[in-house]
Write a structure and sequence with these properties.
With 160 residues, the chain is an alpha+beta fold. The chain has one domain: 3-Layer(aba) Sandwich (Glutaredoxin). Helix content is 22%, strand content 18%. Strand 1 and strand 2 form a beta hairpin. The N and C termini lie far apart (29 Å).
């Protein structure tokens, strides 16, 4: 266990794009797909497929987009800019967090849990680029990571 990291996915929370605290425990019983997102990346069009996946499976899936500016400065905007971009260009209705770090010394606790076996009990994972995805089970268990270039619609096969 990494010091200061909660033992359970459901002990975690994040600040949403509107500045409110969102507890992961509110998502108990659903799959949670965590995706680090950016507005100026070659993978940005994945927002459309993420939204489609969310709409098709929202009774059992929550997608949380975590804006991150750590990869070539591809998410330079404010939370308001990000929210407006996602809604206007892709009709995003799934939850978005405030901008976070997904790696390094200021790594957000959600990403510490997602990327460290010592925290999640299942697997180490490395976020190498925007639109890296990690699926968590309805019971809060780390299930699978997907590379940045993976098609979000392929994840549907892992949602039972």
């Amino acid at each position: 266990m990494i010091a200061g990291t909660p033992k359970s996915f459901y002990d975690l929370s994040y600040t949403d794009i509107e500045g409110k605290t969102q507890a992961m425990s509110d998502f108990k019983g659903k799959y949670v797909l965590c995706v680090n997102v950016a507005s100026k990346c070659g993978h940005t069009p994945q927002y459309a497929k993420l939204q489609k996946l969310y709409e098709q499976h929202k009774e059992k899936l929550v997608i949380v987009g975590f804006p991150c500016n750590q990869f070539l400065g591809q998410e330079p905007g404010t939370e308001k800019d990000i929210s407006e971009f996602c809604e206007k260009n892709y009709g995003v209705s799934f939850p978005l967090s405030s901008k976070i770090d997904v790696k390094g010394g200021n790594q957000h606790p959600v990403y510490t849990w997602l990327t460290n076996k010592a925290s999640n009990g299942v697997s180490d994972d490395k976020v190498e680029w925007n639109f890296h995805k990690v699926l968590v089970s309805p019971e809060g268990v780390w299930l699978k990571a997907y590379s940045a270039g993976s098609d979000p619609m392929d994840i549907a096969g892992d949602i039972k």
